[in-house]
């Protein structure tokens, strides 16, 4: 196929038109005695029209002129000259020339119109595809990607690069298509800036064989870029709105936390301050009972404050999603012992009954976090337990996969509608003025237990209330670690 | 050594320093204080203390580094103060050579008890390495491998003795699970705390007057174990 390459099409087409006229002349020459001049002229219109529709206006005109010459030369008396004797023939020739010319014009215009219509339709389809695609996308990376994909097809580009960032091109993400192959070394043929109403978002770069774009393509590109800019702007606005909502929500939580916490922090501080200032008065001599009373108030309130600060820290970690348990194989009995030793029995003189066998399999938990869970549950149970009653901590392994733990008291039941919600942040069943607490302890327990892959819930007992939670015995594919009997040597 | 034991307190909180200084002096200790790690190191070198109370979170050089540097030239007992928030730090400090730890906030009786244990421990291990450790009714002879309770020999398995001997040689010190497992069973067993629990329970059954309320082999919750030495 070397021929068409070395012989440009703008020369080839008129030659083909001439050939067609020559062929027609030869054919007509065979039947020349059966036809009069007018008929021959009409038949010559056929190759002229064909040439225009096949090869365009210029070859059509060439065909028309050639047909006129051939008609005059071969089929008008005197034959084989370009002179004309009869007035009638002159008329035929003149009419032929006009008709052939007009025909060429009409055919060619119709074809141009057709091509334009096809191009318009294709452009409309591209834009429709683009806007339909963009409408479905909410995030910047997918919008940038779609722009690149669509531009690659719409502009018959070899390479497309879409470069969008918060501070214009080069500051954010860049998508280059096709992904395979080495990127072009040359400068892009077309660079189209992508602008929103306020700022420059980035640019689209095209590398293509044809070089610069045609008028229609440029128009398409402008619309294209405009659509892309709109979609990007919309995505950024949506993101800003989400951020605003999140920060509004966290502001709300913060103020709830502050109001709850400032009250909770101040009351123990007030007790401490009052007791300490009383003790340091030189004009009063306290008897030993009173002294002991004031001192133990200071001590208890200090522990209370310490617990509170621990809960606040944990809460902020849960909020920040930073509550990652540092899991190690631990014995539940050891954790419970540690907590019970620390938690002083309340003024009601409750009895704490523990049934957490040392023989239970080890469980992979964060020691400190589990300590926090038991200490919060135990304190909660003590708080609502009537004086002189028993608070229980029990654990058993109902099967080989789970450990089940319960912390119970003999206190009042929790109304069914509150059972699920007591683990919500700041949720208080009782009125905040009557029983102290931040409403954080139980939500921290839930956060920690769930981070360990367990579940926590509350249940009313026939006489009392129970917190129950489960912990998985296997961890990271490691089977449960049972305690074995030491070997006899 | 003067009659009054010398305590060096390294903490950056002026209020804690003030309180500890007052309380410890009242308890007949000689007290030096430092508010940075660098200052603490210099003081420890200039007038070697009998025990160091060290806060972990210090400005500049932190408590771990202080611990490590002191351990390069001294066996002085180090009691670490840490806030509950930094549980892993506590274990790390013990691994770096601290003897004991206390969680902030702490009761003063607690601190006094730890300081007394540390001083006793230091007295026991000073000079030639002690071959015989006494803990309540139990005597552990590290040379002859004989353990007696109220004068009667207690039969221990090989592993039980290695475990007990390691704890006894470090009497008074908190040894982390990791340290004990690596030393007694080998580094590849460092996270098999279930071994440790089983053997500690066995030892308690054989040695403790009441295995449910241990007096000799104490559990340091979530951290490790410690053998208490003394009559």
List its traits.
heterodimer; A: 489 residues; alpha+beta; Beta-Lactamase; Helix Hairpins; 4 domains; five-stranded mixed beta sheet; four-stranded antiparallel beta sheet; 11 helices; 13% strand; rod-shaped; disordered N terminus; B: 231 residues; alpha/beta; Rossmann fold; Arc Repressor Mutant, subunit A; 2 domains; five-stranded parallel beta sheet; 8 helices; 22% strand; globular
Can you put this structure into words, describing what you see?
The complex is a heterodimer of chains A (489) and B (231). Chain A has 4 domains: 3-116, no CATH class; 138-240, 2-Layer Sandwich (Beta-Lactamase), CATH 3.30.450.40; 262-316, Helix Hairpins (Orthogonal Bundle), CATH 1.10.287; 319-472, Heat Shock Protein 90 (2-Layer Sandwich). Residues 1-5 of chain A have low confidence and may be disordered. Chain A has 11 helices and 11 strands. Chain A is rod-shaped and about 155 Å long. In chain A, strand 1 and strand 2 (173-177) form a beta hairpin. In chain A, 28% of the residues are buried. With 489 residues, chain A is of the alpha+beta class. In chain A, the strands form 3 sheets. Chain A has a 5-stranded mixed β-sheet with strand order 6-8-9-11-10. In chain A, strands 2-1-4-3 form a 4-stranded antiparallel β-sheet, with helices on one face. In chain B, the strands form 3 sheets. Chain B has a 5-stranded parallel β-sheet with strand order 2-1-3-4-5, sandwiched between helices. In chain B, strands 6-7-8-9 form a 4-stranded antiparallel β-sheet, covered by helices on one side. In chain B, strands 10-12-11 form a 3-stranded antiparallel β-sheet. Chain B contains 8 helices and 12 strands. By secondary structure, chain B is an alpha/beta fold. Chain A binds chain B through residues 299, 302, 306, 310, 313, 326, 328-331, 334-335, 337-338, 358, 362, 367-368, 371, 481-489, and chain B through 84-85, 87-88, 105, 107, 157-160, 177, 191-194, 197-199, 201-202, 219, 221-222.
């Amino acid at each position: 196929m070397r021929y068409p390459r070395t012989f440009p099409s703008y020369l080839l087409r008129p030659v083909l038109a001439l050939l067609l006229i020559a062929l027609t002349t030869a054919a007509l020459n065979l039947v020349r005695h059966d036809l009069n001049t007018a008929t021959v002229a009409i038949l010559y219109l056929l190759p002229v029209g064909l040439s225009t529709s096949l090869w365009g206006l210029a070859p059509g005109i060439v065909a028309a002129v050639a047909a006129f010459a051939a008609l005059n030369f071969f089929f008008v008396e005197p034959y084989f000259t370009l002179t004309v004797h009869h007035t009638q023939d002159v008329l035929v020739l003149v009419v032929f020339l006009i008709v052939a010319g007009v025909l060429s014009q009409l055919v060619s215009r119709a074809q141009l119109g057709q091509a334009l219509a096809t191009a318009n339709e294709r452009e409309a389809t591209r834009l429709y595809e683009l806007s339909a695609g963009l409408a479905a996308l909410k995030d910047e990376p997918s919008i940038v990607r779609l722009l690149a994909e669509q531009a690659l097809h719409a502009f018959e580009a070899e390479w497309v690069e879409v470069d969008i960032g918060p501070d214009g091109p080069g500051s954010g993400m860049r998508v280059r298509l096709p992904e395979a192959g080495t990127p072009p070394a040359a400068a892009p043929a077309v660079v189209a800036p992508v602008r929103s109403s306020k700022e420059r978002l980035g640019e689209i770069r095209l590398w293509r064989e044809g070089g610069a774009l045609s008028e229609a393509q440029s128009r398409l590109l402008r619309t294209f870029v405009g659509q892309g800019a709109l979609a990007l702007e919309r995505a950024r606005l949506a993101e800003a709105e989400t951020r605003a909502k999140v920060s509004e929500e966290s502001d709300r939580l913060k103020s709830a936390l502050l109001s709850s916490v400032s009250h909770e922090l101040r009351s123990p501080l007030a007790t401490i301050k009052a007791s300490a200032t009383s003790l340091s008065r030189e004009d009063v001599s306290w008897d030993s009972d009173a002294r002991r009373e004031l001192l133990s108030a200071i001590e208890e309130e200090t522990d209370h404050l310490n617990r509170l600060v621990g809960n606040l820290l944990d809460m902020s970690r849960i909020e920040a999603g930073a509550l990652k348990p540092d899991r190690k194989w631990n014995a539940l009995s050891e954790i419970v012992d540690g907590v019970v030793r620390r938690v002083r029995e309340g003024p009601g003189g409750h009895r704490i009954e523990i049934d957490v066998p040392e023989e239970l399999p080890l469980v992979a938990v964060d020691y400190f976090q589990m300590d926090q869970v038991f200490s919060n549950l135990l304190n909660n149970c003590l708080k609502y337990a009537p004086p002189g009653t028993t608070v229980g901590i029990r654990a058993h392994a109902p099967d080989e996969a789970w450990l089940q733990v319960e912390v119970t008291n003999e206190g009042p039941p929790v109304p069914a509608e509150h059972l699920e919600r007591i683990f919500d942040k700041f949720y208080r069943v009782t009125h905040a003025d009557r029983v102290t607490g931040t409403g954080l302890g139980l939500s921290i327990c839930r956060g920690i237990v769930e981070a360990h892959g367990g579940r926590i819930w509350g249940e009313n007992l026939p006489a009392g209330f129970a917190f129950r939670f489960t912990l998985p015995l296997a961890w990271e594919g490691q089977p449960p670690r049972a305690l074995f009997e030491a070997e006899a040597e | 050594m003067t009659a009054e034991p010398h305590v060096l307190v390294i903490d950056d909180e002026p209020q804690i320093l003030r309180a500890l200084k007052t309380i410890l002096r009242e308890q007949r200790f000689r007290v030096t204080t430092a508010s940075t790690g660098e200052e603490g190191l210099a003081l420890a070198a200039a007038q070697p203390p009998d025990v160091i109370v060290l806060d972990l979170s210090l400005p500049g050089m932190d408590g771990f580094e202080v611990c490590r540097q002191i351990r390069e030239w001294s066996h002085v007992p180090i009691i670490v103060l840490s806030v509950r928030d930094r549980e892993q730090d506590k274990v790390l400090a013990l691994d770096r050579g601290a003897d004991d730890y206390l969680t902030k906030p702490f009761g003063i009786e607690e601190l006094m008890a730890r300081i007394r244990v540390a001083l006793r421990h230091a007295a026991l291990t000073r000079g030639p390495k002690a071959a015989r450790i006494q803990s309540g009714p139990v005597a552990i002879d590290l040379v002859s491998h004989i353990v007696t309770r109220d004068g009667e020999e207690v039969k221990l398995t090989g592993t039980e003795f290695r475990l007990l001997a390691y704890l006894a040689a470090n009497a008074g010190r908190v040894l982390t699970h990791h340290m004990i497992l690596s030393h007694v069973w080998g580094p590849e067993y460092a996270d098999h705390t279930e071994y440790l629990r089983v053997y500690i329970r066995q030892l308690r059954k054989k040695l403790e007057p009441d295995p449910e309320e241990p007096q000799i082999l104490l559990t340091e919750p979530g951290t490790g174990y410690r053998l208490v030495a003394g009559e």
